[in-house]
Amino acid sequence: MRILYAIQGTGNGHISRASEVIPYLKQHGEVDILISGTQAEVTLPYPITYRFHGFSYIFGKRGGIDFWATLKQVKLIRLIRDVLFLPVKQYDLVIIDFEPVSAWACKLKNKQSFGMSHQAAFLSKKSPRPKKKDLFAEWVFKYYAPVKHKIGFHFEPYDDFIYTPVIRSRVRFARPEEKNHITVYLPAYDDKYLLSFFEKIDTINWHIFTKHSKTAYSHKHVSVIPVDNEAYTESLETCKGLITGGGFEAPTEAIFLGKKVMVIPMQNQYEQQCNAMAAAQAGCTLVERIDQGFLPQLSDWLNNAKPVKLNYENHLEGLIQYLVKSHAFSTK
User: Across all residues in the chain, what is the average pLDDT?
Assistant: First the structure.
């Protein structure tokens, strides 16, 4: 069996999940890997068959998206060309993790496709949303990377096609402990801006992982570290708690390890707002933004927030077997 596994490269969560999925796929056939997008620091230990520019948003430095930088890097003609020339017909099974080139290639060429992603969970109305819905963002959930069949991952199984998160093996088999530091991963904020807040609380050490500095440095009790998968995981494994954005993989890994979690979703990023609502329902602390009122909220969280612990099972082997059987049924 020839399998195409297409992965969205915006953010590290898609790549981290792929590192767990690929070994199961390899048990069923020859796997070609496609990645599009430009914002992931994590790499895969597998050869990449197709690497496309795709369409990615660029993180800003004050808690939101840098819309101008995002627009500047859009290459529409290249995107259309990649969609038209991607040979999806030569594959027996196409699995898509919210990746637009492969999704639209399958749609235009009438090729069966299977979506397996966190974003697929938003195709259910039962997944948590903010009080005010963003109709354009809801449209993006449906049409950014359209698929015929879907498997979603979320904080909880809100619908019959939604499963609990894929936890990296490095985290699943970790032995968590508690040292005197908090792990911080807020890629939409500049490290110097974060430093101006966290340096004011000196009763604990801070590990700030950043996309905005290529060199590590320390200031008093604050360590600023360029995003590095192993260094981040070691910090998470031994921290008192995690402060992160409204992503999906980071808070769910911390929840699995039994850490207390604060989520600060990106401004004007609807998916992160949705994730933040789900995280709050799971027991995490939700803070809207980092501004003049942040320090009292931070102190309250440090003193009063409780750890969250959910035992997320590993569903991957069964899900991959289901996809392989579904493919066999669909081609009869």
Answer: 90
Which helix (H) or strand (E) is 260 found in, with range?
strand 260-263
Residue with tokens 């309250």: 300
- Report the distance separating Cα 209 and Cα 183, nearest Å: 8
Query: How do strand 162-163 and strand 149-153 relate by DSSP bridges?
Result: parallel
Going across the sheet that includes 114-117, the strands are 50-52, 30-36, 2-8, 93-97, 114-117, 149-153, 162-163
Q: Are 54 and 99 in contact (CB under 8 A)?
A: yes
- Give the tens place of pLDDT for each residue, 71-106: 555 667 888 899 999 999 999 999 999 999 999 999
E-only strand ranges, 61-174: 93-97, 114-117, 149-153, 162-163
Looking at residue 110, the DSSP 8-state letter turns out to be: T
Least confident span in 127-131, 229-233, 327-331: 327-331
pLDDT per residue as tens digits for the range 210-227? 988 889 999 999 999 998
Give dist(CA 174, CA 196) in Å, integer.
32
Residue 276 has pLDDT above 90, yes or no: yes
Q: Can you list the domains of the chain with their CATH numbers?
A: 2-166+314-330 (3.40.50.2000), 169-304 (3.40.50.2000)
Exposed e or buried b for every residue in 184-203, given b needs 16+ CB within 10 A?
bbbbbbbbeebbebbeeeee
- Evaluate whether 85 touches 67 at the Cβ level (below 8 Å): no
